[in-house]
Each structure stands twice: as structure tokens, then as C-alpha cells.
Amino acid sequence: MALRKILLPLLLVLTSASFSQSKKTENVILITLDGMRWQDVFTGADLSLINNKEFVEDSAGVKSRFWVSDVNERRKLLMPFLWNEVGSKGQLYGNRTKNNFVNVTNKMWFSYPGYNEILTGAADDVRINSNDKNPNPNVTVLEVVNQQPSFKNRVAAFTSWDVFPEIINTKRSGVLVNSGIDEFKDSPLNDKQVLLNNLIHELPYLGYTRPDAITFHLGFEYLKKKMPSVLYLSFDETDHFAHEGMYDLYLQSVHYTDALIAELWSWIQSEPKYKDKTTMILTTDHGRGTTKYDSWRHHGAKEPNADQIWVAVIGPDTPATGERKSGEQFYQNQIAATLASLMNIKFETQNSGKPISPVSSK
Ligand SMILES: [Zn+2]
Predict the structure, then answer these.
(1) Which residues lie near ion ligand 1 (Cβ < 5 Å)?
(2) 139: domain CATH number?
(3) Which stretches in the chain have pLDDT values below 50?
(4) Ligand 1 centroid to 296 CA: how many Å?
(5) CA of 217 to the centre of ligand 1 (A)
(6) Exposed/middle/buried for 107, CB within 10 Å: 0-12, 13-18, 19+?
(7) Given this model, what pLDDT does residue 362 score?
(8) Domain containing 247: what range?
(9) Cis omega (within 30 of 0) on the bond before 319?
(10) Domains in the chain: how many in total?
(11) What is the pLDDT of residue 149?
(12) pLDDT attached to residue 22
């Protein structure tokens, strides 16, 4: 409690000044796909993994769905929304085959440290070095936005993994977080929300996470009913299926999640509160290994290159430059400041990354 008394005035100082330049963005949707590889984002499905019976049951079936020889067509086949919409109207960072680099700065290369870095804008290898459910001592950008009088209770997170109440520190931050096994509570609930709450208990529970479709639709219903200014959707199946060595289910999850995001973006562009006033940021908490034939299943500090990630952004302040190809280096610790700057909120601490400037150079 004593620490909290010291921290709060400091935060007020850090966040009271707004940027003078105005942005068109009034809302931000942040989406993460846990442990999704940049290799699949930029080069599509991997033929050596599709052809390996250890990782794919029906190789011919998966190949017919997700494989063509042209790399640009192949990545579109896997993620049509990302490449047709964000690729033409937004920006994509992290294609290492084209000299564009995004890395995490934490030394852990697993989930809690990654989400801490995404949301608080800084690695904290001393205190955030496990996935245990410890309340985050660091302050997330979601908490800072929620502290602004105009955004009070207008920030929400729906997450498949059940550690997010601690990562976002709901007790301290007051940010609404619905995750894991927890039913969404509201009165009244509509029919769809009742069904989704039931499905949490009627579909396979994947270790510490629920199926991503539940997370998506609970979040989407909340968006339509409550119209928050910042919505965070955190998906987990990609990491789960990769660890299990199920590349077929990993690809399927990427593909239908891309379609769900398309549905969300289409609704946003039809709704006056959000249309042309909303930026969407997509990214991941960590990469995956690359050294051996099965390294793609794993991550963590012992897996070389599992610090390599990607970022995609679309919105009214983001020039439509598409895939970034120049020799740029960006970091996971820039995402929080990028989100805040789009909302005209200053978010910088001693160690935090600066906003990714090309995202809002319109
Ligand atoms: Zn993992």
C-alpha cells in the first residue's frame, strides 16, 4: 500500500500532459495472438511442417487449403483480412526476409514477460520472470487510459488465458478483465452472452485457456453494447496448438481468427462512434524457436530467435504504406506508447519505448 501511495502521484505527472497535435483516433482495439510466428504472418503456411506427419494429420487436406507456391498468395490464403485489408490500408512490421525487424526486449521470451512489455512499455526481467499469477507491480497503458476522466470505465480486456487479471492487475487498475473460466457478468445479459457463458463450460478447456471464439464473441458483444474506447482481445490457441505440435490446428486457428477480426473491423467501419476514428493494433507476446525441425513448438530464452515478433496497424492516423521493407528495427516495448499516443495520451516511463512513429505520421 505504501508503494501505491508513492506511485500514484508519479503517474499523474507522467500522464497529465497531452500531445498538442490532434489525432483522428478516438478508440483503439488491441489484439494479440499468443506466440504466433512472424514466419507464418509474412510467408504463409510452412510446407516442411505441413508435410511432417508428426505435426499434421491430413497433409494433403491442409496443403489444399493453405499452400500455393507464390509467397504473397500463400500468406493471403492463410490471413486474407490481414493481407487484403491491413496490407493495403495499414502497416505491417517484422518481415525479416525484407530486412524489417521487431524484437522483444525482455530476456524471458515467454508470455507474462511479453504481455507485461506490450502493456507497460518496458521489460522487467527482475520482477516479471514467470507465468505465475502474481499481481503486476507495473502499470499498464490500459490502467493509464482508464485513469483519464474522459476514459474512466471505458477500457476492457477479454482474454483466453487466465493470467490477465494479474497482468493487468484488476484489483489496482479497475480495468474490466474477463478471462479464462470466468463467465461474463452483467445485468441483463443478452441471449448470446448467456450462450457464450455456457460454452465456457461445454467446450474443451485448453489448460489455462478457453477457446478463442468465446473470448472474441464475448468481447464483440461488449463492444456493441457498451462501446468502450479501448478494447483488448487476447487470443491463445496459436501458442497452445504450437506447443502440442499440432500445426494443422495452429493454421486453422490463425485462419478463423483472421476472419473474426475481419468481422469486427467490418462492424467498426459501419458504426458511427468507431468508423474512421478507430485504430487496430495486432501483435504477439513472443516468437518461437527456429534451430531444429521441431523448434517451432517451443519458445523461451533457450530457443534462439524466439524473441522475434511482428506488429500490424490499421487506422485513420496510419499511412497506407503496407508491408515495411526498409532496414528498420522496432521493439515490443514501443506498443504501449504507440497506443497511448494514438489516444493523445502521453505514456512514457524511464525505461519505456517510444511510439512507433510511422504509425501516426499522417
Ligand atoms: Zn507458450
Answers:
(1) 239
(2) 3.40.720.10
(3) 1-20
(4) 11
(5) 23
(6) exposed
(7) 67
(8) 2-360
(9) no
(10) 1
(11) 95
(12) 82
